[in-house]
Amino acid sequence: MARWVVLVDRSQRDHHDVDEVAHFEGTQEEARARLYEIACTHRPGVGLRQKRRQVYRIGDGDAYYANIEGAMATFRVVYRLGELAWSTHPESWPWAWK
Fold it and tell me: Is the pLDDT of residue 80 over 80?
């Protein structure tokens, strides 16, 4: 089984950051399903009171763009799926795969 990470790429005004949202093992189909679920449900901001969310698939399903309108702010985020390609010691990572 492959090892996967879901990344969220956020931009708000002059601030931009990328965070890891989830780590897991599975097939590519399972990983894409998990990515879609996260894109539809993840809250990219603390205290976000969502009013409306639009989720757009980018390409073949390895990324989604979400426009999330909250009570006080709008978040525009991209969720991306990454497959582990190489590592020196993956079992020693602090968030060890389970």
Answer: yes
User: SS3 of 48, please?
Assistant: coil
Amino acid sitting at position 38? I
Q: Does the pLDDT of residue 92 top 60, yes or no?
A: no
Largest CA distance in the chain: 44
Which amino acid is present at 56? Answer: Y
Token digits of residue 4: 């996967």
Q: Phi/psi class of residue 93: alpha, beta or left (left: φ > 0; alpha: ψ in -120 to 50)? A: beta
Q: How far is CA 28 from CA 19, 25, 52, in A?
A: 21, 9, 29
6-46 pLDDT tens trace = 999 987 677 789 999 999 999 999 999 999 999 999 998 78
Angle, CA 40 vertex, CA 49 and CA 16 arms, to 5°: 70
CB 5 within 8 A of CB 82: yes
